[in-house]
Amino acid sequence: MFVKLVLPFLGMLLLVHPVPPSVNGIVYVRMKNERGPMAARAGVQCIELLSDTYFHMHESTQIENIVIFYLRNLSSPAREILLGYLQQHHNGYESDDRDRALDGNGSKVSSQFQLKLMSDTVSSGDMRRAQFTDHKQIDYYVIVTDNFEGLRQALARISATATFNPRGKFVVLYNNPNDRDSDRRMANQALMLLFIGHHSVNVLFAFAIDAVSYHVYTGDPYHGTTDCGQMKPLKVATVVNGTFANRALSTAMINIPKVPPELETCTFLLCTRVAPPFIDLDCRRGLELQIMDLLRESMKFKVNVSCSEMDRGELMADGNWSDLLGLMRADECDIIAGGFNPDFDVHDEFGSTTLYLQDYHTWFVPAAGPDARWKLLLYIFEASTWELFACVLVISALVWRSVAHFLPECDAHRELSMCFLNTWCVFLCISANNRPACNSLRLFFMALTLYALNVTTIYTSILITVLTNPPRAYQVDTIEEVLASGVPIGGRLDSEDWFINDFEDDRLVSERYNATSEFQPSLANLQAVVNGSRSLLMSRLYVRNTKYYGLVHGLSKDVFVTQIEMIMEKGFPLLPKFNRILSNLIDMGIMQKLWKDFLYNVTILDRIRQNRNLSEEDIIAASPEVVLTLDHLQSAFALYGIGLCLCVVVFLLELLSKTRWVRQLRAMVERKWDELLVRAQLKERTASEMAIKPRKMVRFRKAVKYSFRLLETSPLSITVTTTCSKKDEPATPGPRWWVLYEGRYIAALANGSQFFRSCVQRGVYQVVVDTSGYPMAGGCTYRLGYNRKGVEEFRSWPFRNLSAPSRIKVQQQRRRYVVLIKWEKSKLDIHVMNYCLAVSTDRRQRTLCQALGNSIHRPSCDTIAVNDFLHRLTPRDERKLDADVDTTIVCTGTRTRQLIRGMKPNVTYFVDVFAIHSQHNNISFLLGSTQVQLNRTRPTQLVEGKVAVGKLSTLGGISLFNFKVPKRSPNNFFKLHLTPCGGTVSLEVLKKKRRIMEPVRDVYYPRTITVRNVRPGERYLIRVHEADDTSRLNRIQVAVSSREDFLDLPRMPLNTTITELVPLRKCHSSTIAWFGSPDKDVTYCVYVFKLPKTQYYINNVKIPTYCELESRDVCNHPQFHNKHCFNRVQYNPLSLDINNLLPEHYYTVFVTANSVRGRSLPYKSVRIKTAPYCLESNQILPTGPIGAGKGPIKTVGFRKAGGQKRRNTATATKNSLSERGTLKRSRKQQASPNRNV
Fold it and tell me: Which residues form the Protein NDNF C-terminal domain (predicted)?
């Protein structure tokens, strides 16, 4: 400032002072121009330097996109800086700027960006309605401003688009000649605006302190020890004329991760909705809380959990969100959870984690009870069986009557009514007095009796079974029946969207759908469902976790199946690492273990807990002594009532008829009826109680013997203490006593007080106490006691109780039935500890002594010296389990890993790790415990729009998938796109273990398979297995679609073969051609891998497979040669010149088609060869055009992939890039050959 004030006065003095005659000219000194071209050039160079340093993404194989925001009414030089930066991006870089962008090692760098321009001429609402067509999130943002309000307006419009990426990288340049001193204050305001208002932390803020110098700031919100979550501006660099003052230090400071790997001082707010089993009522348990504990332990942050009955929330008319989403938008919550399913409206505004669990929803109605027992007499046989019985009865009566008519039988057998009655009595196995007199009729009677005996026996046995376990009444199992019954239906508000569509069935449900509090999942509303007053749409898991499970019935068909996720703001800093951890947990099977633990707890442990809490009255009510009730005798009383009614009807008929033969018939019927009546007598059983009498103690005259039994091998301590009631009595020696084991003498302790062994065998122990000479009558008594606790020496060590249990890791190889067990070393005396494993199929081992007693190495002596015995067990790298014993002991010495073989599938093994102190004999303690179970792998669920990866090594060369055709699919087919990751596979499609099509064999390239004649709503099993056992195939990729094309995947042509044009083959290049995709917005990527000249076949050379092309490490492959990506052109088929090849060499070429959403499908690979001799030249041309073929794609060449290269956004189409720059730049060089470079 002093110079600025002094310079004008010096100029005036020079003008006033008389000029000597010898002076030929006057030099005027002026101030530095803050708005001149030098300031603009320095600002553009500053932005270029920061973007080259900060805008890079090594792990991405796609072209990143960059947004440059154009602000109107900018002052100078901010306007010139912005226009210069835009002009430089649109025109490309000049050749004299080629050496300007260097990386840290001094090598040239360049990168490709897709340029997008935004301006403040459009309002935020119009910008939201006019979205970018590709919907790909923006990677980088560049904003040039001269005031804070302009920055606020630019961010408001940027955040209004659907492509806004809070985790994108921002470069904000602030240049205002009137503000040169408020750099820290302005940086703090800008960083707080991006952090609080837009949840962005990847920000560089460059503040112009003079015309050519800038101070660069970035935010540091999460590295503090006490102020985690508070934005703190941090100065990371100083840029002068487009150059860092200290390049190495500035580059390292700029690229420091904003989020550290561990956040021990950060506390986040987790707001949850009560939704068992994901979030239980007490807010302490739940599947999602367990998942959050795993995330918290991984990143070391803290969580404050709050529970409420609020729902997820919906977007209201005023643009705000309700319930939990409203709390999160108001920064009162950082994360919300509670069984939330994905929703497009929510995903547009908020971020979400990877899907980790599934939830099944259906309608719940009252469970049907047992059917009426009076119907069981008819239901146990079919109607045709009863008709056959009636026919047999009629035919038998007629035969009886006919035979008796022709033979000399009594008159009673000649009457048709008596024949029917006798036949009926035989049917009921009732003794009849009217037996036939003729032999032929007797034989018929015997056959009829045997027939009736068999029928009655079968009928009685089935009737007893049905009475004991009566069938259920008719169960309502469809939504149509629920709607027809008129019962009110409803559920949660966010589930109503599933029924708002044009389908007739869903429209009927939507018209009667209720979302009030009476239809929300709760115990009170479940009781209303049991009473039959309403039907609720609820989660099957929620009902399974309540006491009403079994009292309500869920419809067989699920209404919808949703994935579960956690919701947070899009810019939440831990979201990427959350997704990586959740994906690892899913791959490792931990999510499946949590699910199985939940099923185990709700099905077994809860029922055991309920049975333990039953009172005596509940137990009596659950198992009553009266087993025969009126409910069982409904049929008997019904028959009795029917008989009475018939009797009354017959009686009235008799009174009316007054005929003789009717009176006779009536008398006979009454007599027979009286004989058929049987009274049932109920017998009550009384419970008998048994009392167990204790055994009497055996007392000898001079010695007393005490006995006890040890059920397990354990430590043993026996103490005998003497107590005298008189204080002044002299000390009396204790009695003599000794210990016997199974009748054998162990040790004698004369006047001793304690017997201790660190490990003794199970069995009967006897303690004999000699009381001769002991003054029993003098007031002195002795007390004998024993316990099975271990040695107490280690309890006095100071750090024993402070050390945490060792964590045990288990790596399973299900195919080989092998398990690798690893554990952490003991925190106590780490240098002298040895380790032993106890693997048991029965139960956990509490001590090493107990494990030795249950193992095959059990010693025969009564006392076991643990260390001496374990020294005989030589450590081995591998150990096979012995199937004849329950517990196997393996000692590893000082190693902390052991390989176990011979484990059986679906068997639970308990693994206990013991630490043994090598310098203190018999000192050992339990270091850690876990359990292992080799589970069978279940089929992988295929979802449309997602590519599933299957591992063939899991089931010995087989991978299983299942796919359920959508119920509303209009097609009777579905398509599978199978990509083998090297090798050859075969595919089978089955339905209920039956093939529905011929197997597709020998698939060694990406192939689309159409499965026809399928039915919507049915599930199909896809089995993929190795066709060649000698191949190195390990994985496959499968995509499914029930439509003509695959969702989010590019459409592939019918012919996916890549052809080498042999006539165009040269020594340094070759030409390939293929058919393009029918889609328009498709990007093609070509990968070239070089084969060694001595190996013309790929059997012994490792070449990447189809599945590894999208890997971030594909460019680091030793055989990698080149990669090139370009957009589709209008020509079909496509052709491409592959240059920079070596003469007489083989190359493998892959081509992939990438959709706008980033999903790709590969073509069939091809092996090409270059010519052995060069006809034109033997040298590779370093400059000049690369392609020389026909068509626009022939001008496409390859760039060398090594390090990060210079950015160029000028090639929006054709992607024709050379090693020396763009084609446009080449034309400029050709037009001006005399230009200085």
Answer: 1007-1174
Tokens of 475: 């169960």
CB 267 within 8 A of CB 303: yes
Distance, CA of 97 to CA of 253 (rounded, Å): 26
User: DSSP state, 885?
Assistant: S
> How many helices, marked H, and strands, marked E, lie in the chain?
29, 53
Task: Find where tokens 């030089």 sit.
Answer: 77
- Bridge-based pairing of strands 535-539 and 489-491 is parallel
Q: Give per-residue pLDDT as tens, 440-495.
A: 666 777 777 777 777 777 777 777 777 777 777 788 888 888 888 889 999 988 78
With contact defined as beta carbons under 8 Å apart, do 1088 and 1121 qualify? yes
Q: Name the more confident of 628 and 351.
A: 351
Q: How remote is the C-alpha of 1035 from its chain's centroid? A: 20
Would you say 750 and 731 are in contact if contact means Cβ atoms under 8 Å apart? no
Q: How confident is the model at residue 1222 (pLDDT cuts 50, 70, 90)?
A: very low
Q: Which of 856, 909, 905 is nearest to 882 (CA)?
A: 856
Handedness of CA 476, 481, 486, 487 (dihedral sign): positive
Helix, strand, or coil (residue 619): helix
The single residue listed with the structure tokens 């005998």 is: 720
* CA 911 to the chain's CA centroid: 25
Predicted confidence at residue 1110, as pLDDT, reads 77
Among the ranges given (6-20, 109-123, 211-225), the one the predictor scored with the smallest mean pLDDT? 6-20
**Among 213, 144, 208, which residue's Cα sits nearest to residue 178?**
208
Is residue 659 one of the residues assigned to a domain?
Answer: no
Hey, what are 472's tokens? 């259920």
1008-1040 core/surface letters (b: 16 or more CB in 10 A; e: else):
bbebeebeeeeebbbbbbbbeeebebbbbbbbb
> Is pTM beyond 0.85 here?
no
**Same-domain check for residues 211 and 140:** yes
Residues 113 and 221 in one domain: yes
Write out pLDDT tens, residues 640-666: 667 667 767 766 765 666 666 666 777
Residue 871 to residues 75, 257, 524, 892, 922, Cα–Cα distance (Å): 85, 51, 64, 11, 12
Q: What sign has the CA pseudo-torsion 524, 530, 531, 536?
A: positive
Provide the terminal-to-terminal Cα distance of the chain, rounded to the nearest Å. Answer: 40
Give the Cα-Cα-Cα angle 849, 851, 855 (nearest 5 degrees): 120
Percent of the chain with pLDDT over 70: 70
Q: Which two tokens stand for residue 162?
A: 């659907």
CB-based contact 470:631 (threshold 8 Å)? no
Residue 153: both structure tokens together: 């307006």
Please give the Cα distance from 1042 to 1017 (Å, whole number): 11
Instruction: Give the Cα separation of 429 and 443 in Å (integer).
Output: 17
Q: Write the pLDDT tens digit of every residue in 764-813.
A: 888 888 766 655 545 667 777 777 765 544 455 555 544 567 888 888 77
Contacts of 603 (CB under 8 A, 6+ apart): none
- The whole-angstrom separation of Cα 931 and Cα 906 is 12
Please give the residue range of the domain that contains residue 1133. 1059-1205
- Whether the bond into 77 is cis, omega within 30 of 0: yes
* 437 shares its domain with 511: no
What is d(CA 836, CA 918) in angstroms, rounded to the nearest whole number? 12
Given a contact cutoff of 8 angstroms between Cβ atoms, the answer to whether 359 and 537 are in contact is no
Residue 162 belongs to a domain with what CATH number?
Answer: 3.40.50.2300
Strand partners, 716: 757
- CB-CB contact of 937 with 589 (8 Å): no
Nearest by Cα to 426 from 447, 440, 441: 447
DSSP 8-state secondary structure symbol assigned to residue 1083: E
The reply to whether 444 falls in a domain is yes
Query: Between residues 219 and 686, which one has the greater pLDDT?
Result: 219
- Other C-beta atoms closer than 10 Å to the C-beta of 659 total 11
Domain-embedded: residue 907: yes
> Contact at 8 Å (CB) between 833 and 826?
yes
